[in-house]
Amino acid sequence: MRLVTFQTQDNPNSRPGLLRGEEIVDLTLADSSLPGTLRGILAQGNDAMRQVEQCADSDQRVALAEATLLAPIPDPQKVICIGLNYRDHAEETGAPIPKEPVVFSKFPTAVTGPGAPIELPQVSDSVDYEAELVIVIGLEGRDISKENAADYVAGYMVGHDVSARDWQTGKDARQWLLGKSFDSFAPTGPYLATSDEIADPHALAIEMRLNGTTMQKSTTEQMIFRTDELIAYVSQVFTLVPGDIIFTGTPPGVGMARKPPVFLKPGDQCEVEIEGLGVLSNPCTARG
């Protein structure tokens, strides 16, 4: 299934939907017993997901063209990120190949959806792009084994880990959290593809285009630490809950590594595409 969060002009309330071609089944109308958010649906487990499947033929639909898609999970409890998880990306930044996952986070207020502007702050002139595969957690768990990790995955989506490099690496304190957490610096979408739709998350083409020019092009098979390893690693420390999202790292071609560097500017158009997960498109604007 392809799950979305959306709103319409006649009903600005955000609500969960099931994408069916060029239409969206409004799950709040198709089955009023379902929670009013995707995170809430995931929290109710397999029974709720079966209810969603049963809504596929409902006539409670809106045209995709008449809807505004939001981040599929607009309110995650945790936004977990993995750095330097593609070998060639680590090499282009001059960093050693990590022996264990490099973990950081973004505040949930950084999350935004498809079509929403990436707001470039006045306090940074080195905002960079990073195309990433995002894991969406579907079950609560701690100390999850690699062997069982896939059972805890609700699905996957496209993510864009926008990064203020002058804050992340240029400050004396190397402010990774702050450099990654400006509002709008975590676009995701356009939809959440449930895990049964993605046969192998480690065999997906991934590409980032800036104003139509391809800047990053790779496959997720280049990951150093695979999705099961990441889930097992972080769940040693904290409990994962439904709706938590994990950005899994970016391939080479980021702006900071180019000569000369390429950073985002107002008027730019970013497109991140991952095989089977669609295209996430966001314009860049100056933050007021």
TrEMBL record:
Its EC number is 4.3.2.3. One of its GO terms (molecular function) is ureidoglycolate lyase activity. Residues 78-283 form the Fumarylacetoacetase-like C-terminal domain. InterPro entries: FAH (IPR051121), Fumarylacetoacetase-like_C (IPR011234), Fumarylacetoacetase_C_sf (IPR036663). The keyword Cell membrane does not apply. One of its GO terms (biological process) is carboxylic acid metabolic process. Keywords: Lyase, Metal-binding. The keyword Metal-binding applies. Coiled coil: none annotated. Belongs to the FAH family. This is Ureidoglycolate lyase. It comes from Kolteria novifilia.
